[in-house]
Structures are given as structure tokens and as C-alpha cells.
């Protein structure tokens, strides 16, 4: 489904600030895979997601979805296949626009924006239904500006927007990191629900090992711009934090001590 | 009393100028507020619209058509800035400055069309010789030339422009433009081509400014190469005054109407200042202070609100501690 | 509560307006002319009915000046002095507005005059003239410091009279006499470079006109137009490289940057003949000069006739400066080794 081959990316090449973020990264996702991604700071988790989404051009390698090479396509073109939720709750919605306007924008992902009315009456009912599934009472606040919502509400809305038009790939980039624990829990539940219902192929970056173990059918761990662990199936189901750390120390060796702290185990 | 009377007498002129500059301010509003870009093209575009409109009128083109073409000329200027910005990777503010600079030469050439020198810095268009849409001549004429009274002309023109813009910003394309201004990252993630949206926004904005330039040239009876000098400041002042007075909370319709209101208030204030005989150098200082004041008021109010909240909170804490 | 705050904002703005305006009006004597000239006219005015200090103003004249500039200030002063001398001190009330170099402000100021129904408008420079011509067809408008009325008002077959409610004075020193001066001083030169700002309509007009005269005399003329201060030096350098003599018209941009021009032309050894004394004293060798005070005064005389009903403005031709003076810049002439014939005054 999604295939990354030998992807590399260096930021600020040729300067004192040069940083190699992805080093010959290879990854292959099957249809319906829900993959959690962990790794220390600077391991390249977010960079990988941004490379797939097209935030920047990669230096080498290839990225393809369903066999179609996308690494030269612009970000907004790839958006027709990819739904995204960001770490910063501010980033996923247009704060000056209403909830229904935000949803209407998302409902037209991958389509030409014409001079037709931005929201049709018939759409509103659909949005109301979808919002009520979030269980946050947003279905009665269709004309509230997104900027007035709390961080959790915005992430839930963004999640809905990312899946309103069924994406081939859903990218969740530490989307609960900025939320308080209870809200984070709720948003994760919603993510599970939406992924399951839509059978969405998903990449979820998280900083929390327990979340990475409890969610999804496959787990990958990154270090220094490469995948160092890839666990799926029965092995994934039996994982514990301790066994994961043990595997990681075998795979990454000396990095363990620092990364263990950073991962927050 | 006499001063007040004379102020009242000057209201028609204030309305006439204010309504025309209101269109210009809407252009600034679209880039500065909706698209979140500081576009300095407008200083050149205003003169460009004026030059094109007057040149065509003087050469026998129907004045309504000439005004419409002035608007298209403005859109062309916006397109150039947009392409500088999105296709050449030039920062928006610099792209606007470059186009503005280029338009200075272009305006000289436009007004000098057909003259032996090939350039000309001012081109007059007399209401006595041409059937202009409006003229400052008729700003107090409520009978004979009612149809050319700037106030009578500009109110429906403003209404139509606001209606079209309001409609546009409700369409899919217009929503995409607003999303681009509100959050570019999100817009791209939702499949919006933010470059295209930016170019469209710049074109609409400069189209309005070109239209205002064409109308303004007819109003004052001439276009000149320096016509747009400082226009951005007047436009910004109008936008901000309108926002403080109407407080639309980002609603586009309120924002657009605020531009017209703000522009009228601005000219009213300028009229008072000029009446009181304020000198040249002080006038610019004064304009800057007005804009700064209207920019500062919302900020101060925000601070005051936070302070109030804080004091309420600390009181509650004290009460809790006592309990 | 919200409404209150809104009102507060407006009130705050208004207070600032008034406060600023108040300091403005005290520092600028805007009514009844220059106070320094008042005592001087006392003996002459005693015969007039103005025995008591308070004179009831009979006429209101609106003066719109394009910007603060020595020449324009002098023209305004000459205008007021003429009216005060002819009609008597205090008979005319002057309402003055200075547009600060913005075309837009001219429209606002002129509109103020029209709304008050002033008896006559003095439009000091091109933009006020255009704004006034657009704003009223009834109130008499006199222009001054305008070089070319045909261009400013888009008049096709120029006869020397504007007609309607407009007349005035031109600040142009007769261009044929200026061409004659170039011939008198530099009979052996062949190439004359014409240096001017393409953004100034008055300059363009003068260049076109004098080219005709100079070519008749057998000179080869080349225009060197700069667009603003930034390309002034390179254009000037180019003019120096290709010219025996340079002519600069009454160009505001050139007038503001004579040092820049002087540094280039003096180094290149090319003499400059200028259209006005300001430019000549900065970077020129000779000029034919008019006095802006004089044309302002002439305009004032025209105004007095119109106000008293002695003349019909629609038939009054545009007048030029009554006197021209041949002047030279002694320092620059010495530097360039130019001998000035009789009949020239040195610029002080």
C-alpha cells in the first residue's frame, strides 16, 4: 500500500547546522495496517510523516501509495490520498472559520474548488451526525468558530476532518501530546474508532510507549533516521514496556540510556 | 458653532471620498486580514487604475468600460505580485514592493501614451468634457446631476461590490482562500492549493484598488503618478478603524462594511484636522498616530480583560484559602 | 457596557485630534496673512476705512498649497500681500490648507472651500488646480506656480486663456529667452543634454518646448530623463559623458538634489544652465530667473479685479512673471573657467 524505499533527507545541507533526519529509510505498509511509531527525539518520526505528506522534498529514494510514485507531487495534491492530524491542536483547523466551514473544506479534499456554494444545506445534517459521534456536543455548535474550541475538541474535529473523505493513509503525528491525560485518552479512543470503522491504513507517532503497545497491529521504532524495530502480529500483542525496552536495547545498543528517558517509559 | 456648521457642510465631500476609498480599503482588508499578507502593490495599483481609466476615457472609450478595465488592470498588477511571490519564491512584502516600483514606470508610460515624450506624470480628465461616472463637482448636487453625484453613485456600487465579495467568500473557492489566510498548513493538508489561493486573493484585492483608482481619478479630475503614495496607510487606517468600531470577530461581511465606515471616519477626521489648519509635517505624524491608536486600543482592551480575570482569580484563591 | 467602550474609543480619538490640531493652529498663523507685514502697511492703510483695528472681512479666499516649498510659500505670500495692499488689510479673510504633497489631501481641502462657499480659490501648484477644476465650475479659481495649464487641465487647442472659472499665472521663464541665453553663453557647443525627471509634467513640457528652440539654433538635443533620486546620478553621469552643455528645467527633484548633480557635472567639467535660480545656485552656471513672489503678487492683482467685479475671469489670459533676470553662479563659473558677459547678476 504505502512503500518507502531508501528515503533520505538532510536539513540545511552544507552548513554547520546540517542534520541528517532520514537515512535510507525503508518501510512497507499493508492495506489496513495501523502502525504505531516510537523513537527518541530526533529519531526522524515526524520527519518521516512530513516526507510522506509532502511538507518538503526528499533528497533521495521513493515514496509510493498503491504503486503510484508521489514523492514529486506537491503537498496539496497528495492531500487527496492522505488525512493528517498534527501535534499542535492549532494546526489542524482554520480558527477564524466555523466548525461547519472547516468540515466543508475537508469534505472537498481532493476536489476542484469551484464557485459553487461552500456548504450545501444537505451537508449540514451529515456533519451533525458525524459530530455527534465525537460525543463532545459539537453537533449543536456548527456555527461556532474553531478558534473558540479547546485543544481536545479541535483535535477531535481535525480527526473527523482527516477522515471525512476516506483517506488511503491517515497520519497521526503525536496528536495527543499537547492534551491533558483524560482528553488524550478520549481522543485516542476516537482515533481507534475512526480507524476501525473506516479500515484506514494508519501511521501514528506517539511519545508514549504504552499507547504504542496498546494501539494498532504493528509497531515500529526509529532511531537516527532509520527503522530499528518492526514488530507485528502475535509478537506485537504480547509486548510489554519492559520487553519492548529490552528489544530496543538489543537493536539500538548504546542509545538506550538517553532514549529511555526521552521516550518516557 | 460656526466650526460645527462648517463641518456639517463638508460632510458630502467626506462621504464621497470616504466611499471611494472604502473600496480601496476592502482591497487592503482582503490581503491584510483575509489572506494574512502585507501587500504593498496597492500604492502603485491605485495610480495604475487611475491612469488606465483616464487614458481610455480621454481617448473616447465609454467611461463605465474604462472603469471596468481599470479594475482588470489592477487584477493584472495583483497577478504579477502573486507570481513573483508563488512562482519566484520572493517574500510577499518584497514582491509587492517590486510590482509597486515597476508600476511607477508603467504609469508614466500609460499616461504618456500618444504624447511625443512617451511619458507623462499627470493626466487630467475634465467633467466638462467627458461624461464621467462621478465628479467632486456634483457632490452637493441633489437635483440636476443627481445621477453623477458621487454619493448617489458610490452607495449602490459599494453595495454591489460587498454583495459579490460576500458571495465569493462563501463559495468553495472563497472558503479555500479564507482557509489559506487562516492556516496555510491546514489548508494544504486539506488539499487546497495555497499558491493559487494567494494569487487569486492578490488579484481580487488589487482589482478593487484599481477600481477605486479609476473612480478616484474621475472624482478629482485627474490621475497622477503619485496618486497612490501612502495609499496603503489610508487603507490600513480604514480597515482598523472599521474593525474597532464594528468588531466583526473575523466575519467577512462585517469586515467589508467596516472598511467603508472606517474610511469615512478617517476622512472626517482628516477634514477636521485640515480645518483646524494643521501644517504639512504634522499631518503625516497625525495619520500615523491615529493608526497607531486604533491598533493599540484592541491590544489595551485585551490586556485589561486579562488583568480583570487575573484579579478575579486571585480573589477567589484568597477566599478559597480562607475557607 | 460595550457601547460605552465604543464611545470611549471615539472620544479618545477626538481628543487626540483636537489636542494635536490645537498645537498646530497656534504655531501656524493661518489667517489674515503674515503678521510681520501688518505694521508696515499701517500708514498707507490709515486712509482706508480700517481706522479701528477690527475690519469686517468682505471676502473669503481659500488657498490650497500643494506642499511646503520655498517657491510655493513665496507665491502664497505674494498673493496675500497683493490683496492686502489693494483691498486693504483684513478685507480678505484667507483660509489656508497645505496638502503636504498628497494629491488626495488637495481634494479634501478644496472640498472644504467649496462647502463653505468661499469667494475665490487660489490653487498653488498643479494638483490643487486639478482638484479645484474638478470640484467647482462656479467659484473663480486662480492658479499659480503652474507651468503649463494646457497639460494640467488637458486642454487641446491652447490659446493662452483657460476660460470658464479658471485663470492664473505660470511660473515659466520664457523658454525662447532661455534658449537664447544658452546660445549667448555657449555658441560653440553642439550637443545639449536635457536633464529632467520624467515624473514631473512641468519638466516634460519645458523639455519639449525648449528642444524646438534649440534645434532651430542648430544644437543637437538629447533628453536624459531620470525617474527619481535613485537613478539621478547615473543618468547625470551619462548626460555629462555625451553633452557639451546641460540644461535642467524647473524640476522639483533636481532642485532637491543639486549637490548630487554638482558633484558629477563639476567633476566632468560640463556647465549646467538651469531653469530657476535654486538649481543654478546649487549646480549651475547661469539661469533666467523669475520670482515666485512676483507671480503670486500678479495672481493677487488678478484676484482683486475678480473680487471687485472689475474683470471676468473667463476672458483673463494666463499671465507670466512680469520680470526675468539673467543670473549666474560666480563660484561654478570660476571653477569651469567660464566668462560671463555683461548684464548678468551674481546669485547671492
Write up this protein.
- The complex is a heterotrimer of chains A (265), B (323) and C (348).
- Chain A has ten helices and ten strands.
- Chain A is of the alpha/beta class and 265 residues long.
- Chain A has a single domain, classed as P-loop containing nucleotide triphosphate hydrolases (Rossmann fold, 3-Layer(aba) Sandwich).
- Chain A is globular, with a radius of gyration of 19 Å.
- Chain B is 75% helix and 2% strand.
- In chain B, strands 1-2 form a two-stranded antiparallel sheet.
- Chain B is globular, with a radius of gyration of 22 Å.
- In chain B, 58% of the residues are buried.
- Chain C has two domains: 57-171 and 291-317, Response regulator (Rossmann fold, 3-Layer(aba) Sandwich); 175-289 and 325-346, Rossmann fold.
- Chain C is built from 14 helices and twelve strands.
- Chain C has helices at 2-27, 42-45, 70-87, 103-116, 126-135, 149-152, 175-185, 201-216, 229-242, 252-256, 258-268, 277-283, 292-307, 330-336, and strands at residues 59-65, 92-98, 120-124, 141-146, 166-170, 191-197, 220-226, 245-248, 272-274, 286-289, 325-328, 345-346.
- Chain C has a seven-stranded mixed β-sheet with strand order 7-6-8-9-10-11-12, sandwiched between helices. Chain C has a five-stranded parallel β-sheet with strand order 2-1-3-4-5, sandwiched between helices.
- Classes of the chains: A alpha/beta (265), B mainly alpha (323), C alpha/beta (348).
- At the B-C interface, helix 2, helix 5, strand 1, helix 9 and helix 10 of B face helix 1, strand 2, helix 4, helix 5 and helix 8 of C.
